[in-house]
Amino acid sequence: MQRYLVTGVSGFVAKHFLNLLEEKGEPCEVIGLDVNSSSIGGYRFPISVEVMNLLDSQAINNFIVKFKPTRILHLASFSSVAESWKSPVTSFNNNTNIFLNVLDPLRMNNIPCKVLSVGSSEEYGVVTPAELPLRETQPLNPGSPYGVARVAQEQLSRLFAQGYGLDVVMTRSFNHIGPGQRDQFVISSFVKQVVQARRAGHKSLVLRSGNTKVIRDFLDVRDVVRAYFELLVNGRKGEVYNICSGIGQSLDHVLSTLSELTGVTITQEVAPELLRPNELLEIVGSAGKIHSELGWTPRIDFRTSLLDMVDYWDDKLSQDGNPDIPR
Amino acid sequence: MQRYLVTGVSGFVAKHFLNLLEEKGEPCEVIGLDVNSSSIGGYRFPISVEVMNLLDSQAINNFIVKFKPTRILHLASFSSVAESWKSPVTSFNNNTNIFLNVLDPLRMNNIPCKVLSVGSSEEYGVVTPAELPLRETQPLNPGSPYGVARVAQEQLSRLFAQGYGLDVVMTRSFNHIGPGQRDQFVISSFVKQVVQARRAGHKSLVLRSGNTKVIRDFLDVRDVVRAYFELLVNGRKGEVYNICSGIGQSLDHVLSTLSELTGVTITQEVAPELLRPNELLEIVGSAGKIHSELGWTPRIDFRTSLLDMVDYWDDKLSQDGNPDIPR
């Protein structure tokens, strides 16, 4: 029976991963770690959550020695690029160092375990249009402290696999979307605002945003966690895999699709404070490697993701009892 | 007047840097930081040493705010590749994290200061013979936890320069040699053993070592610190420079030169425990960039370095009062 350790267990991606485990129905046991206490339940498999600061290497070591996980999904991360510019030390510690704190006990205590090291498309950094779609062989040129931290995490993963024989598999994950995502992320914020307008009976909405010409590779979180599961089962030790849709969507296209799905006319207004200097116009990945090696391919199309997000925000805003006043 | 902050001030390279400052004779003030207390003096410029663990970010911040250095030479490092395999977390913390702890206070407190971030040829990692001599444009492919830590340090340096405008200059420094180097380094260990044999009146020596066919790029520490000084004065912000001789020397050639210089016949014997798996046969850098930009070029030839190291060990072993029994 697999014993899963999921770090960052109270987050958006973890929730969908637990749902997938439930769907799979294979017997397993899960312990989640998180900085905040949270009650997670309602699954058929046993699950518990321990509050832990992953900077406390001794506590993690003790925990891992005791629990002896067979699979680790490491989702805990300070993943904001903007925050990494404001607090580079904090960002670095809470990405690279916490990862090392989770990984090294396996080496030191000789615990056999498959580890998924979740990285980011931010590792690629500045790229030229001719290099798209980005493949795993692309040189890494990180453009933010967060990107540097993820590159270090990946390089350490590779060395732990090659040098110590640890069964570590790495990802470079592109933008996620899906129900349950917080509104600090661009698409979820768009959907929330449109749903708020519709609930308030408005037929139109002025939506402030950064540059909507930018093109990004968005993948539904349910496809993301399916890829993670496949990698935890069959990913090759020491290898890195892009997790992406392979399709570029402009934010303009997102807005027009949202308008069509909800019947709300959207007028976009540029918010200067949301324009990012030197922002790359287009970032799209190739999922060719994980497709050819593991047969994984996205199942949820972009329109379906958006529809599910509309439903999510509709439910959430009605539960919050504050549906009518856009915040 | 320049206010120098030198981290790792009790080390081999720092000592030669202080000697160079003395030689230059320009008015300056130096504060050294080190984990161990050490009394350093005898210079015409004021110098003091503070004991500090660079993992203590608050202490460093307070110190930097108070001292307001104008130039930082960051030499503190856990620089052993072998140790980084044994204790990757410790190696990472004591390279990347201590560097960030020194750098970030300049950003947070807006202190104008030129910083030299000392990196390593280990950042290049696995390379093919066709890629020699290594230039700064070579993709980085670190092959040890220490190498990964140095890559992260360099990438963070570049971002701090580009993103925050900090005046950081980076190096990739190749193997150092010179008087004062500890005998945990290969050449210094060779010289010490040969000098011990000569002092004991032996005409020949059986010297155990790893693979002596390997070719490395050795640069005299006095040329190294001259390069560091030039970079602290004129190095371009956010740029990385190889610090190397550009000349490959095989360890066999080192041994034959030593034999010639001392009159001791050396028989090499392979020590299996010193053979490193996957060791690269040849690593040589190009110093073209620092030469063309700053006019720096090595002044001390390899033979002179070895002679000075022979004299150093002769002096040291006679002072230690234990000249006759090889350890």
CATH architecture annotation of the largest domain in chain A: 3-Layer(aba) Sandwich
Q: What is the CA–CA distance across the termini of chain A? A: 46 Å
As an assembly, this protein is: homodimer
Q: Spans of chain A with pLDDT under 50 lasting ≥5 residues?
A: 323-327
Assigned CATH superfamily of the largest domain in chain A: NAD(P)-binding Rossmann-like Domain
By CATH, the topology of the largest domain in chain A is: Rossmann fold
Secondary structure: number of strands of chain A = 12
Instruction: Specify the CATH class of the largest domain in chain A.
Output: Alpha Beta
Gyration radius of chain A, rounded = 20 Å
The interface involving the most residues is between: A-B, 26 and 26 residues
Helix coverage percent of residues of chain A?
40-55%
How big a fraction of the residues of chain A is strand? 15-25%
Query: How many separate helices of chain A?
Result: 10
Determine the mean pLDDT of chain A.
94
Read across the widest sheet of chain A, the strand sequence of neighbours is 3-2-1-4-5-6-10
Structural class determined from secondary elements of chain A: alpha/beta
List the domain count of chain A as a whole number: 2
Principal-axis shape of chain A equals: globular
Biggest beta-sheet profile of chain A = 7 strands, parallel
Secondary-structure element order of chain A, as H and E? EHEEHEHHEHEEHEEHEEHEHH
